[in-house]
Amino acid sequence: MADPATYRPAPGEIPDAPGVYRFRDEHGRVVYVGKAKSLRSRLNSYFQDLAALHPRTQQMVTTAASVQWTVVGTEVEALALEYSWIKEFDPRFNVKYRDDKSYPYLAVTMADEVPRVQVMRGARRKGTRYFGPYAHAWAIRETVDLLLRVFPVRTCSAGVFKRAHQQGRPCLLGYIDKCSAPCVGRISTDDHHRLAQDFCDFMAGDTARFTRRLTAAMKEAAAELDYERAARLRDDVATLQKATERNAVVLPDGTDADVFALAGDELEAAVQVFHVRDGRIRGQRGWVVEKVEDLQDADLVEHLLQQVYGSEDGGDGGTGAVPREVLVPVLPTDVEQVQTWLSGLRGSRVQVRVPQRGDKRELAATVHRNAEHALVLHRTRRAGDLTSRSQALREIQEALDLPTAPLRIECYDVSHNQGTYQSASMVVFEDGLARKSEYRLFSVRGPEGQGARDDTAAMHEVITRRFRRYLADRAQSHDLELADVDGDDVPRSGPVDEATGRPVRFAYPPNLVVVDGGPPQVAAAAAALAELGIDDVALCGLAKRLEEVWLPGEDYPVVLQRTSEGLYLLQRVRDEAHRFAITAHRRRRSKGMTVSALDDVPGLGPARQSALLKHFGSVKRLRAASVEEVAAVRGMGRRTAEAVLAALAGPSAPPAADGPSEQHADQRTDQDAVPGAPSPVAADPAGMLEA
């Protein structure tokens, strides 16, 4: 625990200008990012008497070991930079909004040559227009199924589209007139793109234009006595009306707005937003936030708007784009700057206000009731979760006699099959929760590149490689810190990868290392740490049979109660490491079991390999064939045939068994594999593979 007075800037060093500041811990990791109209005034408020600070702010300033700041020109720039750094560094003490579920969107890939309509979840893609979010994926499919009658846009995957194009025949949707079949040229790519644009315009709320157009065409067909066409157009009008009526009108003036509401207490809050387009509710979304910062509702609203609109690419036209109005329960602290920022994203004026009367106030009350219900549901589902995690970390701290609670735990496990395809995993838990983005895989090489001799040697190698990387990154971090002081670039917190520009994630150690195993594995890990001179990382092992916790150099284990929350957490960490390691091992083993003697022939791809095996039936019969017989196979030539037979005649060619058990490729089973043989999967140069 650091004393804030040890890293407080000297008087006069902090500029009296708008900017963004970053608190970092002793390992260079960013723990908090904030913005201020006046950096001097805001930062000085953190260095007052600790007793006058909020408890969460006290914890932040005592966890931090340094503070940096960046001066910007305007408060709007500070707002944008603050969001960018929160997203990049994911600081522990910043407020984090978590979706209460992964909502599906209706997406139209307008950037493609032939746009496609589909259901999408997850991160947004540039050039794709999104509509929603919807509560259920089936609701999107029902809407699309209705609209394909009027807007027969492509919905098939890339593989189906390519196959139909090659065969010259459309899929079933093309035959039943629910696709305009651009794959076979029934419609040009330009016309199909315009059709997709019409689909997007309709989904964005411009419904009256298409209804009027179809109604006029229907009357024209009836006047020309083309009653069949008039009947089809009549059904199309009914389809559009049915699709439009699915969303009831809540604001009769055709308002485009996002309506936000907050409900919560000092510890957490639930947020709900209704996306209203053309007066109709097009989607709903919710978040739950743990208040790790001491923030008022106005600050929460500001952070919420940063997260919701900060990742938008300027308005793709769906309900995710910035609307003309943003209705909030409380105005943000810097409402003028927020409005300027949102207007820049939209490209036109955006108004942020609190609804005072009429239909909009009633709708805001409805959204608030939904937020209250969401918070009750969240508390029901996660009752005691925060308490149990805190208790688990406290019990581990007491049982292992640690100076502080192990906020970051790393666990290692080794998986192999009789010494072959040796793989190891590293899983990370922070604050008692899995941090899957920080998981890593290791390919165990051994001193001669043929794998380690046993589990203890493998564990020694893995721990050595991980913490050697930590020492290198820490040294790089110190070098970068000194270089950035006088540089012209914006200073970055912690080491930065020169190739990607992203922060290096292993420049700080865990609080606790857990290995899967008993005294031998613990001793191997302890020896690796000692050889590297690392003495500030706690270490223990969890043995599976009796769930005993072993410490380095101890003759007897630490036994936790079977109902202990600390033991439950260690078991979850250990089981996750085991799952991750065995999954990697099985993947490597599967690849190694399907190695063919034809794989090393230059210029022989999968298609020609398949043709050869189909023609001859086995590698053994192929090896016995003549050059002329091989060259006669479709797609082969004499030069390639000679290369194939030369490769199969080499001394390293594996024998192929004849008979009905042969496969379409020479396969090596676990029994045929040489113990300790390296995996065909290439190991990365750094020795660590990202999950």
Structural class: alpha+beta
Predict the CATH topology of the largest domain. Answer: Nucleotidyltransferase, domain 5
Mean pLDDT over the residues:
77
- The helix tally amounts to 20
Q: How many DSSP E strands?
A: 20
CATH superfamily of the largest domain: UvrC, RNAse H endonuclease domain
The proportion of strand residues reads 15-25%
In whole angstroms, how far apart are the ends? Answer: 33 Å
Number of domains: 5
Residues in helix, %:
40-55%
What's the CATH class of the largest domain, please? Answer: Alpha Beta
What does the oligomeric state look like here? Answer: single chain
Shape: flat
CATH architecture of the largest domain: 2-Layer Sandwich
Describe this structure in words.
- The protein has 691 residues and is of the alpha+beta class.
- It folds into five domains: 19-89, GIY-YIG endonuclease (3-Layer(aba) Sandwich), CATH 3.40.1440; 105-246, no CATH class; 257-310 and 318-381, Nucleotidyltransferase, domain 5 (2-Layer Sandwich), CATH 3.30.420; 387-479 and 508-589, Nucleotidyltransferase, domain 5; 598-649, 5' to 3' exonuclease, C-terminal subdomain (DNA polymerase, domain 1), CATH 1.10.150.
- The chain contains 20 helices and 20 strands.
- Helix 8 runs antiparallel to helix 9, helix 13 (385-400) packs across helix 16 (565-592) and helix 14 (455-485) runs parallel beside helix 15.
- The two termini are 33 Å apart.
- Its main location: cytoplasm.
- Residues 661-671 have a biased composition (Basic and acidic residues).
- Residues 208-243 form the UVR domain.
